[in-house]
Design goal:
Elements (H helix, E strand, L loop, with lengths): L5 E2 L2 E2 L11 H11 L1 E7 L2 E7 L2 H12 L7 E4 L16 H8 L4 H8 L1 H8 L3 E2 L2
Helix pairs in contact: 2-5, 3-4
Length: about 130
């Protein structure tokens, strides 16, 4: 007889209260999940900590405000391909493309402002 909790013959793990993370474990996991992002424009370079790239990118844009079109992303390596640098200053279309479609960057800002504020507080200047 087939076990409905198995995948390819493997027994599904049984959950116990010992498997449930404590509050301090959740906090440690949240900190460990954050990734450093390095970015800058001209001769300045900054680092911030973010749990995901969209939060990092939105924070970068808010940090640089009207000069966000000059931002270069230095790390992590996987984020370099998401560049929206533009000497014309027109970046809205590229940001929407990165964030998932027309209007998605603005929607992300509105719906995730608390996480972005937290990320903003982690900004440190490197150079």
């Amino acid at each position: 007889m087939s076990n409905s909790n198995s995948i390819a013959g493997a027994e599904a793990p049984q959950s116990t209260t010992a498997d449930v993370p404590t509050s301090s474990q959740n906090n440690a996991n949240a900190v460990l999940a954050e990734v450093p992002y390095e970015y800058g424009a001209m001769s300045s370079k900054y680092r911030l900590m973010a749990a995901d790239k969209r939060t990092a990118y939105a924070t970068m844009c808010l940090h640089y405000s009207s000069s966000s079109h000059l931002i270069a992303i230095y790390s992590p390596e996987s984020s370099k391909e998401d560049s929206w640098m533009s000497f014309t200053g027109k970046v809205a279309e590229r940001l929407d493309e990165i964030f998932g479609g027309e209007g998605s960057f603005d929607a992300y800002l509105e719906n995730n402002i608390e996480e972005i504020r937290k990320c903003y507080k982690s900004i440190t200047q490197i150079v």
